[in-house]
Amino acid sequence: MARKDVGTWLLILVAMVFVTVVLGGLxxxxxxxxxxxxxxxxxxxLPPASDAQWQAVFDLYKTSPQYHEVNFDITVDxxxxxFWLEYIHRLWGRIIGVVFIVPFGYFTLxxxxxxxxxxxxxxxxxxxxxxGVIGWLMVASGLENAPEVSQYALAAHLGAALLIYAYMxxxxxxxxxxxxxxxxxxxxxxxxxxxxxxxxLIALTMIAGAFVAGTHAGFIYNTFPLMEGxxxxxxxxxxxxxxxxxxxxxxxDHRLLAxxxxxxxxxxxxxxxxxxxxxxxxxxxxxxxxxxxxxxxLGIATLLSVVAIPLASLHQAGAFILFTLTMAARxxxxxxxxxxxxxxxxxxxxxxxxxxxxxxxS
Length: 362
Description:
The protein has 2 domains: 1-176, no CATH class; 184-340. Helices cover 68% and strands 0% of the residues. The protein is built from 11 helices and no strands. The protein has helices spanning 2-30, 51-61, 65-69, 76-109, 117-141, 151-176, 189-215, 247-275, 280-304, 309-332, 350-361. The longest helix has 34 residues, at 76-109. The relative contact order is 0.11.
């Protein structure tokens, strides 16, 4: 029970990180991420309360490139509409910190986190603090010369969130499940290896999506399956254009990875259905296969809609759901039973075959 309590706590944190990712995507899509031009990780809990405080925060925003180049005609009331989403995003991150630190102290004092579990969970604290720094560096990159954050910082921010998410999910499932530390049966090791590679491909596709967002590559070539009549955009892969800078090339890379991920997940799904008996592992693979169909459809719809905010937000959330289901499927291979052996056909005894042949001849 003590181990399961710790696992439940980690899985709650996983859900909270998922909400953070969705909020972060919305701040990006609505242009709210650059509305707060200072970082107060310890004291920045409370929002402006009076007109004077709102005016002071608004005056700080007026020093940003986004105000001068994009929102130069915005009023204080208009500023509030973009401020609140970024504030909620940062506040939620702080709440996650509290939900991590307080139970961690409680479980440690009660002796429920001991031995190897202490450094393994301590790593999460370091990763969480590092993620806060990366997030601020990302915002700061859009406060210098242009009202755009660096696509490299955006990809690093998403990558760090994905790393924390995956680490907590795996540890949480290991502690929460009764057979969470059971070995994978020899019959399933090939399937486990294939699932790990597919997980890596999903993660790579998600990082490529961050570059699409950072370069606004989703607003061009809004056709599918071809890119304005071609397999790849004109000018790509020539003249030394960096694959992380040119929007057309960035979108092509994400498309190619997404299509490869779709095929890989479908193949993995079909393979798992042949090798797994009824049970949680097979159910997880079925959910994974269903989700990749939904996610691929959301990606196409987001592209064709020229990045409509509801569809784009669902597409980002769908990527994390697909990653979650694939990791859960990989984890549930621990302790999964192999398929029962098929009964061998009964062999007829030679004497009976001889007797049957003689009886026909007579």
